[in-house]
Amino acid sequence: MNQWLDDRLHISRLNDKFLRKAFPVHHSFFLGEITLFSLIVLIITGILLALAYEPSNSMVLNSFDPGTADKPNMLPAAYHSALKINAMPFGDMLRRIHHWMANIMIAAAVLHMMRIYFTGAFKKPREINWWIGMLLLIFAGLTAVTGYILPYDNYAYSTVKVIYAITASVPWVGDWLAQAAFAGRFPGDGIIPRIYGYHIMLLPGILLALTGAHMLIMIKQKHTQPQYAKRLAYKKIVGVPLMTQQTPIMLLLALLFTGLVVLFAAFIPVHPIEYFGPPSSSGVDNIKPDWYLLWVFGALAIIPGFEWEVLGGVINAEFVGAMVFPGIVIGAMFAVPMLDRSKDNQYYAENPTNHPVRLAGGVAFMAMMIVMSVAGYKPELIAGGLLTTQNANTILWILTFLVPAISYFATIGIVRLIRAIREADERDALAHAHADD
Ligand code: HEM
């Protein structure tokens, strides 16, 4: 069979070029793979959901409760089809797996990124893959957000309202931009077909193209090597070949991981669209994005309302909180390979404690994201009595800078301690070695 295929497709060349690649054996390298498996499961479950979903805002008769001839009960087709999917055998389960997998993919991509950052794997020659990874993270987030809108329940409707307002807040071109992105003024009839196009074609197409480039670059540049590889064979690539060792390991991991997510989805339901009902003009108060976008909501919550007129355009708090601030955060993340130019990572994943400023900077950044995400809960913190309306902004602003600053200096202190202990151990070991001589 192999010979038959080889005569026609020259697969042995493919085998030599790609399938003999050595993969390092280290658990942290599975994070990128889990992100990849999640993307594959999302595409499969997404295709199945698309078979039953109706991408339309048009009103259709509610087949569960048609009402009377005088007063027919009408629902948007998209919302109605989501209810129908819930009622189909395994339909609800499919929605759950798709939903939870999207969350896990973003969480795995963030953890994967943390591994890359803390071990310095973004350094030359891997800067391009860091930038492609950043794009992957942004487009994965956009894909998830557009997915939330598709069931078109009252919550999704209120979410589009907020995103429309944010897009329209861009000075000078916002109104035009929002209409172009959402197929007319909110809430136009073209919203659902437009978002559907983004969610099932444009964004997955971009994700697949970027993932392909990410993988090809990774194969070309080879993985960074775990520290133990240094001791085994200095400056040599240590690992197991893709065929036949790594592939079964990956398949096993993929099956185990997917099985666990299916088990999780069987018990944990997703956002209950029937509870929120179809869109209503009043919408839902106090909507919240998923955990990975809460920090943007935090920025919106703590920036006090203002409006400046500049050359005929308006710069307001919405634009600064939801566009300028995230732009600065994302820009800083893109700039990581330019900011850290120490040259010692061609081959090996670095020990984070050997780079205290990078480590402490990363910890401070994460602390800031967490505080801002908590700030996204400002109305709840006030309602729960933890803050008062008067002091809420001041306290949240102070915490936004104080907690990261404390985290930064605490990390530097802990790293110094760890290094002092390590150096003392090394001195002891050396002294013992001399004594033995
Ligand atoms: C959909 C999202 C993503 C997928 C599917 C993905 C997948 C992968 C896989 C399978 C690997 C090889 C295994 C590993 O090193 O863990 C890898 C390596 C890499 N990824 Fe990603 N990744 C994604 C997002 C990101 C992000 C957000 C970043 C950083 C901003 C990033 C930067 C890198 C870099 C620099 C490497 C090479 C690491 C090395 O050689 O040690 N990736 N990616």
Account of the protein in words:
It comes from Deinococcus grandis. Residues 1-227 form the Cytochrome b/b6 N-terminal region profile domain. InterPro entries: Cyt_b/b6_C, Cyt_b/b6_C_sf, Cyt_b/b6_N, Cytb/b6-like_sf, Di-haem_cyt_TM. This is Cytochrome b/b6. The protein has 437 residues and is mainly alpha-helical. The protein folds into two domains: 7-271, Up-down Bundle (Cytochrome Bc1 Complex, Chain C), CATH 1.20.810; 351-437, no CATH class. Helix content is 67%, strand content 4%. The protein has helices spanning 2-9, 11-19, 30-52, 77-87, 91-118, 127-149, 154-168, 174-181, 191-221, 227-232, 242-267, 273-276, 294-302, 317-334, 336-339, 356-375, 378-383, 392-436, and strands spanning 22-23, 59-61, 74-76, 240-241, 307-310, 313-316. The chain has a two-stranded antiparallel ribbon with strand order 1-4. A two-stranded antiparallel sheet has the order 2-3. The chain has a two-stranded antiparallel ribbon with strand order 5-6. A hairpin with a 2-residue loop joins strand 5 (307-310) and strand 6.
Name the shape in a single word.
globular
Please name the CATH architecture of the largest domain. Up-down Bundle
Strand-residue fraction?
under 5%
Which series of helices and strands comes N to C?
HHEHEEHHHHHHHEHHHEEHHHHH
Domain Cytochrome b/b6 C-terminal region profile: 229-417
Transmembrane segments: 29-53, 97-118, 130-150, 162-183, 195-219, 249-270, 291-308, 314-336, 357-375, 395-418
Pfam families: Cytochrom_B_C, Cytochrom_B_N_2
GO molecular function: electron transfer activity; metal ion binding; oxidoreductase activity
